[in-house]
Design a protein that fits this description.
mainly alpha, 3 domains, 13 helices, globular
Amino acid sequence: MAALQVEIDSSYLYECVARAQENPELAEYYRQMAEFERFHAQKMMDHWNITTPPSPSFRAKMWNKIGQKFGYDVVVSQLLKTEKSIGYAAGQSKKAAGIQLDGRENIHTVILQSIQSMSGGNVSSVEKRHRTVGGNAIRAAILGANDGLVSNLSLVMGVAGATQGSGDVLVVGMAGLLAGSISMAMGEWISVKGAQEMYERQMELEAEELEAHPEEELRELELLFKSKGFSPEVAQKMVAEIAEDPEKLKDVLIREELNIDPDEMKDSAWVAAISSFVLFSIGAIFPVMPYFWTEGFSAIIQGGVFSALGLFLIGSALTLFTGKSIWFSGFRQVIFGLAAAAVTYGVGHWLGVQLS
């Protein structure tokens, strides 16, 4: 049933992407991808004697909401990962059964990558007022909040164990929040800025190659399309159409040959740093909050409850990428986070006894 749900969700998301298109040709491509997924779903339903197809999952609907808010590039990126996973699984099954691979295992991946190339990588043109945010950025946001919560929870519980939850915990907790947020912000700024500078240099070299040897670059692109399964005639036609627009040609070469998304270069290192600071702070405030109005054992218990709630929300958000059950991911995050807090509380209590 899990495989059927994947097909239903993929069909639903392809339709959502198609509706976001202002280019009728690209919209039709995505509708055809949705039709492929519905065909696969129907075959599964016939095999299992299922008459009513399941509805799109909560996870798929959340991805659509994210696409509506931030642009559908992030949705297509997630669909591409799904297609790669399905293709890999199909290939492994054939190998296990002793069946020779024929390239059909990854055909949806090839088609989707080609659609992205034809669109210049921008599938959310109808949502121009929305800023495109990649799936990695969303994942980084979730993990940033998790880092803040778990690290500060461990710090606060360690100090609380040593001091029995005295008012000093608030000072330590806020100091940990501030220090961790600044560290995360600086790390994110350096990471984004360094990647931008490296990619910009690679893009400059590619532009120089295109200017100096345009025929060679076009032949390389044609060969690349052939390697993805397109016939020589179709590959030649695609390259000829792309070459009519120099800017689009440069964009496709950068995406295909360098595997760089130029849209990611528009991200500001300062925006990334500020976002990291805020997200880490949001996570880190959960275990500290009770100490603003109480202290002692009551503050320790309340801090644990608030932190458990935050951990559950973070674990639930991760299901956007893992596809696991919200309850499973949420409670797993709670168990791991509270286990870390229990260890640091125990160590803090032991040290407090020894020092006293």
